[in-house]
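Suppose a colleague, Dr. K., hands you the sequence of a protein chain of 249 amino acids and asks what its three-dimensional shape might be. Before reaching for any lab equipment, you can write down a predicted structure in token form. Begin with the sequence itself:
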Amino acid sequence: KATDDREHVAQELAKYNLLAIPVVDEKYRLVGIVTYDDAMDVVIEEATEDALRMGAVGTLDESILDAPFATVWRKRAVWLSFLFIAELMTFAAMAHFKDAVDKVLALSFFVPLCISTGGLSGAQAATLITRAVALGHLQPRDWWRVTTHELAMGLVLGLSLGAIGFLQVAVTPSDWLGLEGHQRWLLAVTVSTSVMFICMWGTLVGSLMPLIFQRFGIDPGYASSPFVATFVDVTGIVIFFTVARWILL
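The predicted structure, expressed as tokens, is then:
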């Protein structure tokens, strides 16, 4: 129909391998056609918008070098400022666990490793789910299937990365860590366990956020990699130091 979303029309053309599709009004009277060339223009435009949103950049009507410098600055600065302010919460999280860092300084060495694991796994999941939503393969009603699948995937990925983290601690010289004996191995278990939980959490958040956005009528593209990474960074610190208190302290 003439009121259908143009992206939906492009998907229908691709789904049925059509060269053109008729457009009708509410009374099913022919009012025009949409050709394959028209659909390709829509696909390119929508893909560009999605890519910009996933990079935390507002949509641009021109090439980046042709658009006014102030316009590009504004569209990039707004999102970066929001994400920067959100990242300031990592400062509060680190300050809350200052006692843990004071007791075992080596914990601070592995903070970037652990939180980046969550951000990367979350960004990866968000990209996959956002693309699946754009292609019509997933809807918000599929949230339970996505949850169970991504929790299992996050667990397997977390175990794999956790094993690498364990080995990293194991081969790090003791004088670098400032730990001896069983404390060294407790640190290795802390790092590997934290990586596993953070990876599971990041994967879950990254996979569900696009579905939540779509459910509330927000473009899933806004559930961008930087947005997911920022959120998981803060919560990843909490997970890391909570696990450290359970195992090491």
